[in-house]
């Protein structure tokens, strides 16, 4: 479903590549986790794949569409859940979702019913007509998720969708992502929650300093790493214990 070939990104003025000659294939129907310490290049990679930023060099295709020549078509195929909320605080949840739908030309009664259904599934039916600025972080994340899937994308990119939310919201988000995946959506997500990734992902890639240092099923990575019992053990063995602060 996704084929990445020799993809690199060096930001303007930066000394180092944030993503460096990266090759990766993600199959249709996977839940693929991009894991790595702060500054590893996860957001940069997802931002290139979702056409938010331009690669410095390299190629990728999504559903056999080359990113250089099919930007418009790709926008219909993919959904993006960014780290930051992309919601209007003074609009209600329903109004926000109507607005996001309009960007994909979605309107009419069946679309309104779809929004209601999604709000219901994500536990927000009673808050449909409340302004976003009154919502908790977990509620905003759930609305953000709905906004990205209204056009029923084949591939969904999520940048830390469960960061900073309560356990209840996290569980609802993960369950919904699993349901979408069962219906055929390929999911690529970044996370710092290694326990979550261990059970949620079909495969993961551990990224450090812009390169993939390991990839495979969580079980295979644990099995192949001496003395590792969890994905966190593998992660620390491959990326070390040093802090990765950057500014
Ligand atoms: N807009 C930018 N301009 C310059 N450098 C950037 C920019 N965005 C990111 N970087 C740099 O690129 C590198 C990778 O950052 P990126 O945000 O992709 O990492 P990440 O793995 O998503 O980190 P985190 O887990 O903290 O979100 C870092 O060194 C960062 O400082």
TrEMBL record:
One of its GO terms (molecular function) is ATP hydrolysis activity. Gene3D superfamilies: P-loop containing nucleotide triphosphate hydrolases. It holds the Pfam family ABC_tran. Coiled coil: none annotated. SMART domains: AAA. Residues 2-234 form the ABC transporter domain. The keyword Nucleotide-binding applies. Keywords: ATP-binding, Nucleotide-binding. Transmembrane segments: none annotated. This is ABC transporter ATP-binding protein. It comes from Patiriisocius marinistellae.
């Amino acid at each position: 479903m996704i084929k990445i070939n020799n993809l690199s990104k060096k930001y303007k003025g930066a000394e180092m590549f944030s993503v460096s000659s990266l090759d990766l294939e993600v199959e249709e129907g996977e839940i693929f986790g991009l894991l790595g310490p702060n500054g590893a290049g996860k957001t940069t990679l997802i931002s290139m794949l979702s056409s938010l930023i331009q690669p410095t060099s390299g190629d990728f295709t999504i559903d056999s569409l080359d990113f250089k020549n099919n930007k418009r078509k790709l926008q219909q195929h993919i959904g993006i859940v960014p780290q930051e909320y992309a919601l209007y605080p003074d609009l209600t949840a329903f109004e926000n979702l109507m607005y996001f739908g309009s960007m994909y030309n979605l309107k009419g009664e069946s679309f309104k019913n779809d929004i209601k259904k999604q709000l219901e599934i994500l536990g927000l039916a009673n808050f449909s007509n409340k302004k976003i600025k009154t919502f908790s972080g977990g509620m905003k994340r759930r609305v953000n998720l709905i906004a990205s899937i209204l056009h029923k994308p084949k591939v969904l990119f999520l940048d830390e969708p469960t960061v900073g939310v309560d356990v209840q919201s996290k569980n609802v988000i993960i369950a919904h992502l699993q349901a979408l995946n069962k219906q055929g959506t390929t999911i690529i997500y970044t996370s710092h929650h290694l326990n979550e990734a261990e059970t949620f992902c079909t495969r993961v890639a551990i990224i450090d300093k812009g390169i993939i240092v390991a990839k495979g099923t969580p079980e295979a990575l644990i099995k192949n790493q001496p003395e590792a019992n969890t994905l966190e053990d593998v992660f620390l063995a491959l990326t070390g214990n040093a802090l990765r602060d950057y500014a």
